[in-house]
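Appendix B. One record, verbatim.
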Amino acid sequence: MASLVLASASPARLATLRAAGIEPSVRVSGVDEDAVLAAAAAADGTPAPAQAVLVLAAAKAQEVAEGLAPGDTLVLGCDSLLELDGEVLGKPHEPAEAVRRWHRMRGRAGVLHTGHWLVDLRPGRPVPQVGATSSTVVHFADLSDAEVEAYVATGEPLAVAGAFTVDGLGGPFVTRIEGDHHGVVGLSLPLLRDLLAEVDLTVPDLWASSTAH
């Protein structure tokens, strides 16, 4: 039975996997995201948003995988960014930046890109790594200044891609989405299913996995 290691500290990604019957172990990478993107830009030019999240997801999964011994284990790395007007928006970190973001986002739509990278550590596998990006259009409510201030004051927008959640306090401020809801949460379950198929596994193959690494 294969086991899954989630290379992410995101509680939302962990909760998504658990709700789907998968109990992964968690190992958080120490990847410097800015350095990874700078290296990618130096090699091939600035990556498009959908490619940037894939580059970051791969870096995280690969770093965690390097610290594990070969075995019946898969490592999943993910990264999310919001694209608005062609600009990539990650985590705002500071309240003032989050407020500025929401003043731009309210009443409009952006694209939430989530990169997924799967490293297969089972010996002798013909396809040791696969990846893909989930892209979903997110429509935001036209928040009042007071709503923006109140939401930012909760602290939730500071540590999430695009300064919003769809599965938390930010849920009421997302009017609709076009695409996979789980991709907006941070981990697309249908896309994970597709990636598992590329390494000859199914989601049920992971249902019983609950191992600590």
